[in-house]
Amino acid sequence: MSVILVLFYTFSVCVYSQDKEFKGWLPAEISYYNNLKGLAEYVNGKSDVNIDQDSIIHKFLKIEEASRDSVNKNTVYSIEYRNGVFTSFVNKINSHGLDNLDAKPLRFYKENDSLYRPFVSALKEVAPNVMVYYRKECPEKPLGTLLFDNETHKLISWVLLQGAGASYFF
């Protein structure tokens, strides 16, 4: 009987802590977070990650077939170019340390005008699919934004380009 009570208590604590961690989150946002966490754990400590030749593209990223096409070789749309840009994301994880980073949905940052401004008009349609990552000690100063696919919940873009009044994800 005491074993059953201990198991029930352990299960209750685990369920409660999960609900508390994701309080107010939508199911898709939890999926984005879990995908991001898996990706971060996978690249943590690696200095050389090739998204084309690694299983990373199949597990965590959604990259259009056109990016892998030889027609786009040596362009900003090529997988090689995207791999170079991805390296900067991996370097952020490694430089800050995986245990020091966290993420949450963009909608929790509506009060942060400089971060949220591009998503009011130009990127309004993708706002529900965006996660913000930050250092745990300083969540009010995000390091960046990440765009996820709403169907597969895989990471689509890790670079938000802004300038001359325009904003878009690369």
Salient structural properties:
globular, alpha+beta, disordered N terminus, 170 residues
Brief overview:
The chain is an alpha+beta fold and 170 residues long. It has one domain. It is built from five helices and six strands; from the N terminus they run H-H-H-H-E-H-E-E-E-E-E.
* Count, helices: 5
Helix content: 25-40%
Radius of gyration (Å): 18 Å
User: Mean of residue pLDDT?
Assistant: 75
Beta fraction of the residues?
Answer: 15-25%
Count of beta strands: 6
How many separate domains make up the residues?
1
Bulk shape: globular
Low-pLDDT segments, ≥5 res: 1-20
Give the spatial strand order of the biggest sheet: 1-2-3-4
Oligomer: single chain
Secondary structure class reads alpha+beta
Query: What characterizes the major β-sheet?
Result: 4 strands, antiparallel
Order of helices and strands: HHHHEHEEEEE
